[in-house]
Amino acid sequence: MFGEGFDMNALMQQAQKLQEDMAKAQEEMAAKSFTSSAGGDLVSVTLNGQGLLTAITIKPEATEDVETLQDLIIAAFRSAKADADQSLVESMPQVPGLGM
After folding, report:
1. pLDDT tens digits for the chain (100 residues)?
2. Is 28 part of a structural domain of the chain?
3. What's the total number of domains in the chain?
4. Which residues span the domain enclosing 50?
């Protein structure tokens, strides 16, 4: 059915190793945090390895202009999220054919 030279045991071992590698990478990501700032450090945000917001720091002088403050929070969040996403991509095991 699979032709000569096909080793189902080797395929199963490879799949199991991939599962273990992915679990390890996910565990390592969960322990990481990503902090980014905007507006010359007027605003900083921290995300955990799952991309959830865990902290926001706002300097008092940033509160004078609410619209600017909102933009700074968004910019800092997006930057931290991009860092977290990039770290996730880099930490995942390379799987042939998945384009990662």
Report:
1. 555 677 888 888 888 988 888 888 888 888 899 999 999 999 999 999 888 999 999 999 999 999 999 999 999 999 999 999 998 888 876 655 554 4
2. no
3. 1
4. 34-93
